[in-house]
What does this fold into?
Amino acid sequence: MDGEGGHVVNALGTFAEPGVLILASLADGPKHGYALIKDIEGFAGTRLGPGTLYAALSRLERRGLVEALPAQERRHPYRLTAAGAEAARSYLQHARQVTATGLARLEGYAW
Amino acid sequence: MVNKLIRLYPARWRERYGAEMTRLLEDLAPLSRGARLRVGLDLLRGAADARLSGDFHRPGGAARAVGVASGATVLGWLPVGALIFLTTVTFPSRFDGIAVVGGFFYLMAFFLAIGAIASRACPKPGAWLAACAASGALMAVLFNATYAVIDNAYLGIVSRDPETITEFRASGMTSMRDFINVSLEHQIIVGFVVCVVIGVLMGMVGAVCAAERRQPARV
It folds into this structure.
């Protein structure tokens, strides 16, 4: 994927797509692992496994896109950082542009 | 049961995420048999990623770099030994050209990987350079020892090789076994120097490339 949005995904490596889902989920407030899985399943229809979730979360945390809040009953809630919000916005705007172009071209596609 | 798979993650990863991952698995319980399998496979994938990414790797010292490189060299020698056996005993004098070219490229790629592995074990240049040199030396020793064992054990086959017969006649020696062993002794020094030099040079390339890959990506 090229462009600014693609750059964000490439920088996240193997778990880029789960990373974007996590950033989108955290955009409406901090969540811990279980809440993230449920929220993402609700809005994206994708059920992340715990291994995938934490692989993506650890990458996002090391890149400063999310940060852990103090643990509550062995659960660390995570929240979006300013850099994470910017990265998510950049990726989603790029995805919207790709989606709009793809849908417009499909309208003229002869079945 | 699935919780035990967390032990497969690197220690540094477990220190940071182990407790909350355990809590998450408790939150997800009870899991059906199919779900347990999916979660188990997902944890295996996550553990492999955590180990391969190097982000949670705890670097060791020079001894660890040399030890890891030496262990990898013994494993890397296995296909070389098999190739020597095949071209000397199973298909004598038939695939020598292909074997030499293939073996050369294999060793180049192998030492590239050794550089990457050794620099991951210990990022200090002196340590991984020593590990690459040790790997080259060990490969040379294993290489010559393999030829020594095979040539002596299968002397009847080796002594029928036309090129060996020509060289044996030109040597003026009277025993084919002695001729082969003297030839191997002469090859030891050259093989040793070549393997160490290639090991260090290719290892440097592998270590530098691996260090580039380990740099955190800019977002």
